[in-house]
Amino acid sequence: MKFRLIYPKWPKLARQTEFHLPPHGPVVFAATLPEYVTVDFIDENLETIDFDDPVDFVGISMMLTVQVQRGWEIADTYRKKGVKVLFGGIATMLHAAETMLHADAVFLGEAEGRMEEVFTDFRQGTLKPCYDYLDARPDIALVGTARRDILNRRLYNHKGVQMVDLVHASRGCRFNCYPCAVSYLGGREFRPRPIDKAIAEMAAIDNNRLFIVDNSLAQDTAWEMELFREMIPLKKKWCSHPIEDKPEVLDLAAQAGAWYVYQAVFDTSDYIRDRIKRYHDHGIGVEGTILLGLDDHTEDSIKRLIDFLLEIELDLAEFTVLTPFPHTKAYDDLHKQNRILSSHWEDYSADQVVFQPKHMTPDRLQQLLDYAWNTFYQDESQNMKMAKLFQQVVKKEMADNTFKPRNRELARQTFGKGQAER
Ligand code: SF4
Q1: Residue nearest atom 7 in ligand 1 by C-alpha distance
Q2: How large is the greatest C-alpha to C-alpha distance in the chain, in angstroms?
Q3: Nearest residue (CA) to ligand 1, atom 4
Q4: Cα separation, 194 vs 393, whole angstroms
Q5: Ligand 1 binding pocket, CB closer than 6 Å
Q6: pLDDT at position 238, please?
Q7: Phi, then psi, of 168 in degrees rounded to 5
Q8: Which residue ranges form the domains of the chain, and what is each CATH number?
Q9: What parts of the chain have a pLDDT lower than 50?
Q10: What is the pTM of this model?
Q11: What CA–CA distance (Å, rounded) separates 196 from 401?
Q12: CA dihedral 13, 188, 5, 97 (to 10 degrees)
């Protein structure tokens, strides 16, 4: 059976450097398909869909709210041709009711152990409109090695450098942050994969650079330290969401190849200052993720925050505005207070103000978002800062002889001839 799995395109953040990481959701999902299914994957951000190419069944995997409109259009086109369409992924769960209007079936939840049922129903012509497994999460040990073989790997490079490969070692998150839907999507219980399985998957990836996409690694100290210990012999270099802020954990993370972390910076406290310093002291870079427009943000406090980011020498920063995604506390609060200004999901790109901020007009917050990008990158451009972060990984790879010859030319451009060859 020929199953076409599609990842709909979406516009990138206006100020973000445009590059494309290999998507993770579709390759994890593909690993759950019955053996008789042949998957043909299209990342529409990089490839064009040929709607005339015959196919038995279509799957649409949506991660982001800004993908849903395009996902629905793709489904409508296939369904007009008589092809049945199944939807899944995070954004399908966030927008289930609307997505059902464009689907033959939607799958909600984690797919491991469930696809035999869906595909049997498809073959028997008895597809159900909704397979709701949101609250019946599968045994985490069922998570198999992602099917990266379905990716067209040559598409995922930036200026000739292979992009990081994405991998996960756990699901769920014990926290419940205000703007985040993870507690709805993956539950409040932290669910680590068996470490040997996660390590075997990392080891098998033909790429020295990984992005460990777990929601947050700072969940369970003993697990985190064990994971890092097991990662040391792999000599991979990786970025991730936050790591627990304890010297013994950061020590092990550095030995395991931690390159940089994405770290939310939400205030100008000594706690944040010290935390960033500790990462840096361990040779770990920091890309700050900065959310503007929270109810305690005034114009002055936002400006102070940007100055603070420069003071603490963040390696990179990405600025977004609070966006009330469905199934978050932010949505519930702003909706109750009648402060949501747009329900057009294409506007939910996190760089457009779609709600009424508490201490300023929406236009002023939009201007402050520009101010944040411009001020943070005024003395050193985003490209320069990225190049510096890239130098860090090259240095680490040269130090342990894992630097790949295919990246040597780029290192020459970055460091000059002599140093690249030492
Ligand atoms: S923002 Fe991160 S730490 Fe907070 S709930 Fe979401 S995934 Fe967990």
Answers
A1: 215
A2: 65
A3: 177
A4: 28
A5: 173, 175-177, 180, 182-183, 215-216
A6: 98
A7: -130, 145
A8: 2-140 (3.40.50), 157-399 (3.30.750.200)
A9: 413-422
A10: 0.93
A11: 25
A12: -80
